[in-house]
Structures are given as C-alpha cells and as structure tokens.
Amino acid sequence: MKIALVHDYLNQYGGAERVLEALHDLYPLAPVYTSIYAPKRMPQHYRRWPIRTSFMQRLPGIMSHHQWYMPLYPLAIESFDLSPYDVVLSSSSAFAKGVITEATALHVCYCHSPMRFAWNFRDYIQGEKGAARRARHFLPGVLNYVRLWDEVSAGRVDAFIANSRVVARRIRKRYRREATIINPPVDTRLYTPLEGESPGDYFLIVSRMIPYKRLDVAIDAFTRLKLPLKVVGKGRQEAELRAKAGPNIEFLGSQPDAELKRLYAGCRAFIFPGQEDFGITPLEAQASGRPVIAYGAGGALETVVEGVTGEFFPSQTADALADVVARFDERAYDPAAVRRHAESFDTEVFKRKIEEFIRGKLAEREASEII
After folding, report:
1. Burial code of 9-31, b = ≥16 C-beta within 10 A, e = fewer?
2. Rounded to an integer, what distance in angstroms lies between the CA atom of residue 280 and that of residue 293?
3. Buried-exposed string 73-93: b where 16+ CB fall within 10 A, e elsewhere
4. What is the pLDDT of residue 65?
5. CB atoms within 10 A of CB 63
6. Residues in CB range of 18: below 8 A, 6 or more apart
7. Which of 85, 100, 239, 332 could pair covalently with 4 via S-S, beta carbons 3.0-4.6 A apart?
C-alpha cells in the first residue's frame, strides 16, 4: 500500500505541524507534498523527510509573504501527481484537502478547520493592523473564488477527520459532511510533574503573540492583580503587549524545551485566554501536572475538566479572568489526576486511532467492491 501525505505549507511551526510529525512517524516512507517549504524555519529533522513542493516554491518573497499569493494555492495543490498512491492523507486547514487523487485511491483529510480566513474573515482580521487591515478592502472578490473552490474541493475527500467537536460542526456547516473526531497528539513523555517540591508563585502563558490569541486579556488582568505572570513566545503583537504590561509580567521570548518543561511544571496554573479549535498547550501544562485557567469556549471545553484539571472564566474579558485568578487555589488540584487526564491525548493514542480509522475505511471500500 503506497501512502502520500499532503500539508498546506511548511513555512511556520505550530500545532498542525505537530500533527504532520505524528502522521509521518506512523507512515515514515510516505512523501510529504506541500505548496512551499522553508527549511530554515522548520525543525532540523524535517530535512531528512522526502518533501515535494509545488511551483510556488520559486515565487519571489513567498516565504515571508505567502498570504499574498492566495489565489495560486488551489492551482499548486491540484498540480501534484498523486496517481501512484493507494491512500492520500491530507493535513489541512486551508488548501491541502483539494488535491486530485485517482478514483481508486482513498483520500482521508485530517481537518484542523475549514479555512478560517475565508469563512470567518471578519473575526480573522479583527485586531490586525497595517497591510493586513487594509486587505479587507480588496480581498472579498478573491475570497468569493476561494470559498467556491473550498466547497467544491471538499467533495474530493472520501472521509473527514476533525480535530475537535468545534471543527466537526464547522465541517458539517461548510461542507455538509460528517466527520470522525480524533484529537491532535500531545507527546506527554516530554512533560513531568514536580516530585518532592512545591510549584512556584507564578502563572504561565505559552503562546504566539498575535491578536486572536487574546493575550491582551491576560496582560490587563494580571497587571491589575499584580500577580507574577511569565509569558513564553514571540509575535507581532509583542511591543503592544509589553507597553501595557505591569512590572509583575515577565516576557521570556522563545525558550528551549528543557526550560519550557521546567516552567510548565513550576507554575501555579497555566493561563489560556484565547478561543482555539483545540489547543495543545493546555494539555502540555496538564501533562506537567498543572491545572489550567481557560476561557470557557472552543477546544478548551474538550481538554479541561472543570474542578478536576482546571477552571473556566465565562467571558473573554480581563474582569472575568481576574475574578477567577483572584480566588484560585492550586492546592485543590491533584497533579497525578491532572497528568492522567492529559495522557488520554498522548501521541501514541492519536496514532493508534488514525491507523484504525484508515484500516476501517479500506475494509469498508473492499467490502463494497465485493458486494
């Protein structure tokens, strides 16, 4: 059985790329097809993979300004010759699901979300400034074309997997298709709870500093509370967040894995102020035995168990977050129980579910052909 993996683009590293890594571990001989690939921006081990790019790889400025080439992505994804493959597994939050496969091939799409920028453009652009903000004046025509292509290309997928209940609902709404839910992988082996010592006095955020992550809510709340908050990450909103932060807030930038592990294990609680489709960092914190204080919406409702592994604040405001943090008591949480919950999302669990799903779909296809 010949398998190919397809991914939107490889010029930034995040949760979708962690999913791709788990898929590649499961099918190490499968080549990875993607529109563009920036080796210097991706982990070193990607350079050992058989990565095959489209014509877009040669376009000027593509790695830094890939958004401006939006109309070309459908052409790039459709240009791949996937005729040799029996199974195509696409990892898509945008264009990868639109590949053209042989009629006899099984195409399974692991969908991180239907295109956010196409279907939720107003929310996507909110908080952006400069060129991104100005783009709202001329993008509607382009987005109309992209939305039409997105709906049509969804019909090329034989089976959808959604990363969360939120995304499954979107797939039903946008594509009128049902999806099986398999949550993204978390490598719980990388994180361990503290042994024989108490956590520190600080709260922790690990996030890219971009508007929709809503770090501004946490910065405002903790500046008001004057409680220690450590922020790990970088992003275009960093200068704005630093300007409004009080002296109790420490910006640490990017941190090596060993230090990040220590920060997770030593925090009083992990703060998650954004609304994500799923969200892996809260599970990394829970794998470290630490509770989470999250905005009660989106994927957090699937990864945090209220009163067992964390707490929710009801509205995405500094007032609501500050109220929960002010009365929070980390001693009410059992690190071992918090850790056990995270283990149910482990990478090995993910890989087993993916493999079982694909085998099941192949068996269904074989049975239907016999009938």
Report:
1. bbbeeebbbbbbbbbbebbeebb
2. 14
3. bbebbeebebeebebbbbbbb
4. 84
5. 16
6. 184, 185, 280
7. 85
d(CA 360, CA 352): 12
Element (H, E) at 366: helix 347-370
For 346, which DSSP code? B
Predicted pLDDT of residue 130: 52
Which DSSP letter does residue 309 get? T
Instruction: Determine the pLDDT at residue 138.
Output: 60
Q: What are the Cα distances from residue 7, in Å, to 33, 147, 189, 262?
A: 6, 19, 26, 32
Per-residue pLDDT tens for 35-47? Answer: 999 999 999 999 9
Of 281, 256, 119, 131, nearest to 204 by C-alpha is 281
Low-confidence ranges of the chain (pLDDT < 50): 131
Q: At what angle do helices 318-326 and 215-225 cross, to 10 degrees?
A: 50
> Does residue 11 contact residue 73 with C-beta atoms inside 8 Å?
no
Output the pLDDT for position 12.
Answer: 87
Q: What is the pLDDT of residue 13?
A: 87
**Cα separation, 333 vs 224, whole angstroms:** 25
Helix (H) or strand (E) run with residue 131 in it: helix 130-134
DSSP annotation of 101 reads -
